[in-house]
Amino acid sequence: MQRFDAIRPFYDSEINEALVKVIDHPMMKALMNFAFPGVDDEHWKEQLTKTHSTRDFQCNFIYQALMQVLQKTSDGMSTSGFDTLEPNTSYLFISNHRDIILDTSLLNACLFDNGLVMTASAIGDNLVQKEFLYTLSKLNRNFLVQRGLSPREMLQSSKLLAEYIGSLLQRENRSVWIAQREGRTKDGNDATHQGVLKMLGMGSDEPNLMDYFKKVKIVPVSISYEYDPTDALKIPQLMAEANKEVYIKEKNEDFNTLMSGIMGQKKHIHIHVGKVLNEELDGIKAEFDNTNKQIQALAQVIDDSILQSYKLWPTNYIAYDLLHKTQTYKDFYTENEKCLFERRLEMRIDEGNPIQRDGFLAMYANPVANKLKYENAI
Question: Of 192, 185, 188, whose CA–CA distance to 99 is shortest?
Answer without folding.
Answer: 185
